[in-house]
């Protein structure tokens, strides 16, 4: 059973996401400490909220809960659950690493569908958590602890929210499109880099990230990108 999990596509997706998550978030935490101590005026000019910094206690809590989600919930709970779902949906037609990776189908057809599926899933679950006082108070409020987040805070969430609100929408794209394993690894890395960017706290290519505004104003920018917020009038740039 343990071998099956370790050799599964979902496990490799989680490993790839973990590698990029820890690399990016550790670099951003280091930049945060340089900027907080005024050791880099050049980097400080890019900080979106230059007067907001994470305290020592907040940093410890951040590392503990994020590590729990990334190193326990993702590999030990999400991998077996989504492997079963993936097998149930596609059975013997599920693609393996030995199958040919057809770039026209994987990149031009499946990836756009995965983006849409993830956006619909993330937006829907996110707006439900803001609409229900009970869910907000007991679940989603944890993720909103940081009004000016840092990259590591992208997975700082109640484990239930991490599983259903973050991982489920990301898994659903490859599962529904029966993505090739290489596409799935790529997709998890893209999703992880995107959410680290969204929570980095810095202007990248000259502008503040869309999701940073959600952490500050709460009732705007529920999506991971512009599509559904634009359609439903919840966008704030
Ligand atoms: Zn967030
Ligand atoms: Zn929220």
Notes on the protein architecture:
With 237 residues, the protein is an all-alpha fold. The protein has one domain (2-232). Helices cover 67% and strands 0% of the residues. It is built from ten helices and no strands. The protein has helices at residues 2-6, 9-36, 41-44, 56-90, 103-131, 133-138, 159-177, 181-198, 210-217, 227-232. Helix 2 (9-36) packs antiparallel against helix 4 (56-90). The radius of gyration is 18 Å and the shape is globular. The mean pLDDT is 93. The structure holds zinc ion (2 copies). It comes from Chaetoceros tenuissimus. It is found in: Membrane. Keywords: Membrane, Transmembrane, Transmembrane helix.
Brief descriptors of the model:
single chain; 237 residues; mainly alpha; binds zinc ion
Percentage of β-strand residues: under 5%
The low-confidence runs, each spanning 5 or more residues with pLDDT under 50, are none
Number of strands: 0
Counting helices, strands and paired strands, the structural category is mainly alpha
**What's the N-to-C terminus distance?**
48 Å
Order of helices and strands: HHHHHHHHHH
Please, how many helices? 10
Helix content: 55-70%
């Amino acid at each position: 059973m343990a071998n099956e999990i370790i050799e599964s596509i979902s496990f490799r997706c989680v490993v790839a996401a973990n590698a990029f998550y820890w690399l990016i978030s550790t670099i951003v935490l280091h930049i945060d400490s340089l900027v907080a101590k005024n050791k880099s005026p050049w980097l400080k000019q890019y900080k979106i909220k230059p007067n907001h910094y994470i305290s020592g206690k907040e940093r410890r809590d951040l590392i503990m809960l994020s590590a729990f989600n990334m190193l326990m919930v993702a590999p030990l709970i999400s991998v077996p659950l989504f492997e079963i779902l993936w097998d149930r949906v596609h059975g013997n037609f599920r693609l393996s690493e030995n199958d040919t990776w057809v770039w026209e189908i994987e990149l031009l057809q499946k990836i756009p569908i995965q983006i849409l599926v993830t956006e619909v899933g993330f937006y829907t679950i996110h707006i439900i958590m803001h609409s229900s006082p009970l869910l907000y108070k007991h679940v989603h409020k944890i993720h909103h602890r940081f009004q000016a987040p840092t990259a590591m805070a992208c997975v700082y969430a109640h484990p239930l929210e991490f599983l259903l609100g973050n991982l489920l929408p990301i898994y659903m794209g490859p599962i529904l499109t029966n993505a090739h394993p290489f596409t799935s690894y790529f997709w998890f890395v893209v999703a992880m880099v995107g959410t680290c960017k969204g929570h980095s706290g810095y202007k990248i290519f000259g502008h503040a990230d869309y999701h940073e505004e959600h952490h500050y104003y709460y009732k705007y920018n529920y999506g991971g990108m512009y599509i559904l917020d634009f359609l439903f009038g919840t966008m704030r740039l």
